Each structure stands twice: as structure tokens, then as C-alpha cells.
């Protein structure tokens, strides 16, 4: 059975921050790619980004982190690049000026 992608994001400390933390970049990418995923909400105020289990996935103790089965990756632009290459969508495969532009803007 295909394992569900998990995106680890945060519960913003202030409601004004909703939608502007970097996990939003990855949610947007997952939505554009029409992929099913589970959004795992972590609360940094409660130390949930500093647990030994989470630090194994992301030693920086920040969000976002994405796990895809046994594979995991952190840093929002690296995650978006991983997803685009895996799905072969939203980024040209050939080394074109468009690809360079896309990568520079992730
Ligand atoms: N360069 C990283 C930045 C990650 C980052 O700073 N994440 C913030 C949210 S935007 C965070 O985890 N803040 C909670 C904390 O530091 O405890 C990326 O793009 O993924």
C-alpha cells in the first residue's frame, strides 16, 4: 500500500501568521500537484518541534518537514523541488531558462 505523504507544519502562535509560515509553500505545492497528504500540526510553543522523534526528521527543529514513506526531507524549497521532480510536473526536466527561473523562485 502506498504510504501517505505527511507534511509537518506549525500551529501559528498568532492568528496573523496563519498562511505565511513556510509550511504554506509546501501545502500550496501539494495542492497544485493534487496529492493527498496529511498535515501534522506541531506546536513549537509546547516543544513539539524539539522532540527526539521530530529532530530525527529535521535536525533544525523547524517546519516544514515532509515525509514520504521512509524518505523525509526538510527546507521548504528543497521539498518543493523534490515534489516537482518526483511528479515530473511544474518544473521542466530539461535545463532551460524556465527551469532556472522556477528553481530560483521556489
Ligand atoms: N529555511 C527554512 C526556514 C524554516 C523556518 O524558519 N520555519 C519557521 C516557520 S516559517 C519555524 O519553524 N518556526 C518555529 C520555530 O522556530 O520554532 C525553510 O524554508 O524551510
Detailed description of the structure:
The chain is α+β, with helices and mostly antiparallel strands and about 110 residues long. It has a single domain, classed as 3-Layer(aba) Sandwich (Glutaredoxin). The chain is built from four helices and four strands. α1 (about 25-30) runs parallel beside α3. The structure holds glutathione. Glutathione binds near residues 49 and 63.
Helix content: 25-40%
CATH hierarchy, class: Alpha Beta
Kindly give the count of domains: 1
- CATH architecture assignment: 3-Layer(aba) Sandwich
* Main beta sheet strand tally, sense and closure: 4 strands, mixed
**What is the element string, with H for helices and E for strands?**
EHEHEEHH
CATH superfamily: Glutaredoxin
Instruction: Indicate the structural class.
Output: alpha+beta
> Mean pLDDT, nearest integer?
91
Fold-level CATH name: Glutaredoxin
Spatial separation of the terminal alpha carbons: 31 Å
Please report the total strand number as a whole number: 4
Please specify the SSE layout and strand pairing.
Elements: E1 5-10, H1 23-32, E2 37-42, H2 52-57, E3 65-68, E4 71-74, H3 76-87, H4 97-104
Parallel strand pairs: 1-2
Antiparallel strand pairs: 1-3, 3-4
Helix pairs in contact: 1-3
The protein binds glutathione.
